[in-house]
């Protein structure tokens, strides 16, 4: 029954109900995990082990990792498959020679490859059937699709003979268009961009520097109403750009770009507490819950009718953004 535990020698066996309502047998130990193939062998905490398998003459490995569990114990979790030295996550397809396989986990501890027949790799669009890898356009010539392992994937949109990648925005004839990854067609954005106080037009997605802060032009949408918005996205320090809620290493010191308590974006040397967090967790705020990619907190500003000085406002982030060694980050400084 779910929640029931039994102790057998050095291992604890527990029946757990996962978030997706599936039942899983979790085998744990305070000093490590039970090896899935070698009797009585412990896997050290956080180690990744490989178990050799074979399917249709293809040799591959199932991957497991010993992770921390409840009650100070550890348990083995499936993390994927390895083919020809390359790791594939669970649910991913593997193309090998002329065959296609899929890395699956039907039950906990049972990650393995399965062979996918050719007839399960086709896609249907309208009245036509497309083979795996086929590319085609919609009837109106706007949407571009590809059949990928049995799934119809929208890869782009065509506007004025220009191809816009799916889920991206691009200007065509000085007008912005967004290509949604799902659904037919392309979305014209009814604004040209953001205007600075001096009248300079900043295109959506472009950035510019104002004093020691980097800003970017974006937009908000409420029902069918679009508004241009300028948001701070980083700091300029010693000629380098630090993404907001991130840090760099400059002359043996960590420099942090964040929003202070007065809602001002600033770059400053890391405090002793932040240095401790960086050393222990590679983030500068141990209490934060950012997403680790330079976007640890939201940033906001009023709709862009310009703005002078550093008048744009921001919301404090959480300090778990990207970091680097005095690199330019992911933002290209503008010329403003």
Automatic annotation (TrEMBL):
Highest taxon in the source lineage: Eukaryota
List the protein's name.
Uncharacterized protein
**What organism does this protein naturally occur in?**
Panagrolaimus sp. ES5
């Amino acid at each position: 029954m779910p929640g029931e535990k039994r102790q057998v020698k050095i291992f604890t066996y527990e029946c757990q109900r996962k978030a997706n309502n599936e039942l899983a047998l979790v085998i744990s130990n305070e000093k490590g995990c039970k090896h899935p193939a070698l009797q009585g062998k412990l896997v050290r905490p956080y180690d990744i082990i490989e178990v050799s398998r074979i399917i249709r003459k293809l040799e591959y490995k199932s991957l497991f990792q010993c992770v921390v569990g409840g009650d100070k114990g550890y348990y083995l979790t499936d993390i994927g498959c390895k083919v020809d030295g390359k790791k594939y996550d669970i649910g991913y397809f593997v193309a090998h020679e002329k065959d296609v396989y899929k890395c699956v986990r039907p039950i906990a501890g049972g990650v393995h490859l399965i062979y996918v027949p050719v007839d399960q790799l086709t896609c249907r669009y309208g009245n036509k059937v497309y083979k795996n890898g086929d590319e085609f356009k919609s009837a109106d010539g706007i949407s571009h699709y590809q059949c990928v392992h049995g799934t119809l994937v929208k890869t782009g949109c065509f506007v004025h003979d220009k191809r816009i990648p799916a889920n991206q925005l691009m200007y065509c004839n000085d007008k912005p268009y967004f290509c949604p990854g799902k659904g037919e067609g392309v979305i014209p954005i009814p604004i040209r961009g953001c205007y600075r106080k001096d009248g300079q037009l900043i295109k959506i997605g472009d950035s510019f520097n104002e004093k020691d802060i980097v800003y970017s032009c974006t937009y908000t949408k409420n029902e069918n109403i679009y508004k241009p918005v300028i948001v701070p996205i980083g700091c300029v320090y010693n000629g380098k750009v630090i993404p907001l809620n991130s840090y760099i290493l400059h002359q043996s010191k960590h420099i942090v770009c964040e929003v202070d308590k007065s809602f001002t974006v600033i770059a400053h040397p890391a405090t002793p507490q932040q240095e401790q967090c960086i050393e222990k967790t590679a983030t500068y705020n141990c209490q934060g819950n950012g997403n680790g990619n330079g976007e640890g907190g939201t940033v906001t500003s009023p709709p862009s009718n310009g703005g002078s000085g550093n008048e744009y406002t921001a919301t404090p982030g959480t300090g778990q953004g990207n970091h680097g060694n005095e690199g330019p980050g992911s933002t290209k400084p503008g010329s403003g």
